TrEMBL record:
<dbReference type="InterPro" id="IPR006204">
    <property type="entry name" value="GHMP_kinase_N_dom"/>
</dbReference>
<dbReference type="InterPro" id="IPR020568">
    <property type="entry name" value="Ribosomal_Su5_D2-typ_SF"/>
</dbReference>
<dbReference type="GO" id="GO:0019288">
    <property type="term" value="P:isopentenyl diphosphate biosynthetic process, methylerythritol 4-phosphate pathway"/>
</dbReference>
<dbReference type="Pfam" id="PF00288">
    <property type="entry name" value="GHMP_kinases_N"/>
</dbReference>
<keyword id="KW-0414">Isoprene biosynthesis</keyword>
<dbReference type="InterPro" id="IPR014721">
    <property type="entry name" value="Ribsml_uS5_D2-typ_fold_subgr"/>
</dbReference>
<dbReference type="InterPro" id="IPR004424">
    <property type="entry name" value="IspE"/>
</dbReference>
<dbReference type="GO" id="GO:0050515">
    <property type="term" value="F:4-(cytidine 5'-diphospho)-2-C-methyl-D-erythritol kinase activity"/>
</dbReference>
<feature type="binding site">
    <location>
        <begin position="94"/>
        <end position="104"/>
    </location>
    <ligand>
        <name>ATP</name>
    </ligand>
</feature>
<keyword id="KW-0547">Nucleotide-binding</keyword>
<feature type="domain" description="GHMP kinase N-terminal">
    <location>
        <begin position="67"/>
        <end position="143"/>
    </location>
</feature>
<feature type="domain" description="GHMP kinase C-terminal">
    <location>
        <begin position="201"/>
        <end position="256"/>
    </location>
</feature>
<feature type="active site">
    <location>
        <position position="11"/>
    </location>
</feature>
<comment type="pathway">
    <text>Isoprenoid biosynthesis; isopentenyl diphosphate biosynthesis via DXP pathway; isopentenyl diphosphate from 1-deoxy-D-xylulose 5-phosphate: step 3/6.</text>
</comment>
<feature type="active site">
    <location>
        <position position="136"/>
    </location>
</feature>
<comment type="similarity">
    <text>Belongs to the GHMP kinase family. IspE subfamily.</text>
</comment>
<comment type="function">
    <text>Catalyzes the phosphorylation of the position 2 hydroxy group of 4-diphosphocytidyl-2C-methyl-D-erythritol.</text>
</comment>
């Protein structure tokens, strides 16, 4: 049977503002997504019997709840495809860290199985399907760094200079839904432009809320700020800081307190998934 190994990259939110709220409670955002050349790997093997299985994946995520399995089932339902798949997920992206790991895994499965099953859906259709699984899935489907509005699904592709980032996971799991419902979250940011972001405007509105509730994240931000300008990604708990070279980043990590996890990665405009699919 045909098998395909595909990357599921992590993302950073270079800034994240909330400008309002929809009637259904979902928040309206402004954010800038960039991909990292760091992520999970997903192996997809086609099954003729129509079953979807996940023989390997995140230990604490049950198979039926895994976003990869949910993505495969959704694609099957929507297209009436009678093929199935085995999905091996090699997790590297810390979970609940604001790096979008689950969403990226889901997008990789949608794109990969759409190809292997010959479903013929285009990116618009896959992004619409993906949005039903999570607000962050569409950007991973489209695979281009983007300025995002709406709940994160109104995407305008942007070109960004390639930069290195130090990323730190303080080994704290921050539940996204809980953070979005925090009473002290700023929800009335005035809209900004990409030019204003490049001029230095923009912050992450979750940062003060997370720092207050999770002292370990506050410690990590304070530690990284001693070397470079540190900021939270998504709703945390990971933080990042731009550095001028991979070497500079690794030097910072030499001093990383052993209780945290850190890595250096390049921010890329075209997602590693998109780059890989061009060659398939
Ligand atoms: C924080 C970000 O990662 C920034 O990129 C995303 O906005 C979150 O995206 P995600 O993890 O895919 O989130 P989802 O799984 O869609 O939503 C989790 C929960 O967060 C809240 N949520 C999410 C996105 C949004 N724009 N407004 C919200 O209020 C909702 O309560 C939702 O039930
Ligand atoms: N394949 C998967 N990988 C990671 N998490 C998954 C997966 N499938 C389901 N989940 C669930 O989704 C939750 C959020 O995981 P994820 O790593 O996407 O968080 P996150 O990086 O904070 O996301 P975001 O930045 O989109 O808020 C996990 O705690 C887990 O219960």
């Amino acid at each position: 049977m045909q098998a395909l190994i595909l990357p599921a990259p992590a993302k950073l939110n270079l800034f994240l503002h909330i400008t309002g709220r929809r009637a259904d409670g979902y928040h309206l955002l402004q954010t800038l997504f960039v991909f990292l050349d760091f992520g999970d790997d997903i192996t997809l093997s086609v099954r003729a019997d129509g079953e979807i299985h996940r023989p390997a994946g995140a230990a604490d995520v049950p198979e039926h709840a895994d976003l990869t399995v949910r993505a495969a089932r959704l694609l099957q339902q929507e297209t009436g495809c009678r093929l199935g798949a085995d999905i091996h997920v090699q997790k590297r992206i810390p979970m609940g860290g604001g790096l979008g790991g689950g969403s990226s895994d889901a997008a990789t499965v949608l794109k990969g199985l759409n190809h292997l099953w010959n479903c013929g859906l285009d990116d618009d259709a896959l992004a619409t399907l993906g949005l039903r699984l999570g607000a962050d899935v569409p950007v991973f489907v489209r695979g281009h760094a983007a300025w995002a509005e709406g709940v994160g699904e109104q995407l305008t592709p942007v070109e960004l200079p390639t930069k290195w980032y130090v990323v730190i996971h303080p080994r704290v799991h921050v539940p996204t839904a809980e953070l979005f419902s925090a009473p002290d979250l700023t929800r009335d940011c005035l809209p900004i432009t990409l030019a204003a972001f490049h001029d230095g405007q923009g912050s992450n509105v979750f940062q003060p809320v997370v720092e207050k509730r999770y002292p370990e994240v506050a410690n990590a931000i304070s530690w990284l700020s001693g070397f470079a300008e540190a900021r939270l990604t998504g709703s945390g708990s990971c933080l990042f800081a731009p550095v001028s070279s991979k070497g500079k980043g690794n030097k910072i990590l030499q001093n990383l307190p052993p209780e945290w996890f850190g890595f250096v990665a390049q921010g890329v405009t075209m997602s590693p998934l998109q780059q890989r699919l061009v060659t398939v």
